[in-house]
Amino acid sequence: MHEFGIAEELAVLVDRTLSENHGSKVLKVVVETGAGAVEEVSLRAAFEEAARGTAMDGAELVIETSAREYHCFDCGVVFSADEGSNASCPVCGGFNTISAPNHDVVLKSVEIEG
Ligand SMILES: [Zn+2]
Predict the structure, then answer these.
(1) C-alpha 21 to ligand 1 mean position (Å)
(2) For 14-33, what is each residue's pLDDT tens digit?
(3) Distance (Å, rounded) from C-alpha 15 to C-alpha 11?
(4) Can you give the pLDDT at residue 28?
(5) For a pLDDT cut of 70, what percent of the chain falls above it?
(6) Residue 101 has pLDDT above 70, yes or no
(7) How far is the CA of 85 from the centre of ligand 1 (A)?
(8) Rounded distance from Cα 105 to ligand 1 centre (Å)
(9) Any idea which architecture 2-69+104-113 has in CATH?
(10) What's the pLDDT tens digit per position in 38-65?
(11) Does residue 40 contact residue 104 with C-beta atoms inside 8 Å?
(12) Residue 83: DSSP 8-state
């Protein structure tokens, strides 16, 4: 599943941050995801799975969702909206829009215990 790959990548990044900072335990992991890019429930489950038995075990996972970006073919403007696939353009009102490719999940910050 998609989310498991993401969680494993996160685990690697978090682990690297932990050793760079000589920490012993991860308290909190904050990630940002594009709207609709992942299923939050699946990501949480995958994260728990990836964290089991590691320094990340029991860490709080905070998922922040960023608005999806759209491109309007009629007037060329780029705008953000949370409306799924059919957002109308705020400039010209057209529906000839496409959502820009969304990033999946980005690691924003890690809180560790020394
Ligand atoms: Zn437009």
Answers:
(1) 47
(2) 999 999 999 999 999 999 98
(3) 6
(4) 97
(5) 93
(6) no
(7) 15
(8) 28
(9) 2-Layer Sandwich (3.30)
(10) 889 999 999 999 999 999 999 999 999 8
(11) no
(12) S
**What's the token pair of residue 76?**
């060329």
Looking at residue 104, its pLDDT comes to 76
Which residue type occupies 28? K
Q: Name the residue with tokens 């829009």.
A: 97
Q: Which residues surround ligand 1, an ion (CB under 5 A)?
A: 72, 74-75, 89, 91-92, 94
Torsion of CA 77, 83, 87, 91, to 10 degrees: -40
What is the C-alpha separation between 104 and 43, in angstroms, rounded?
11
Tokens of 45: 């489950």
Extents of the domains making up the chain:
2-69+104-113
Interval between CA 59 and ligand 1 midpoint (Å):
43
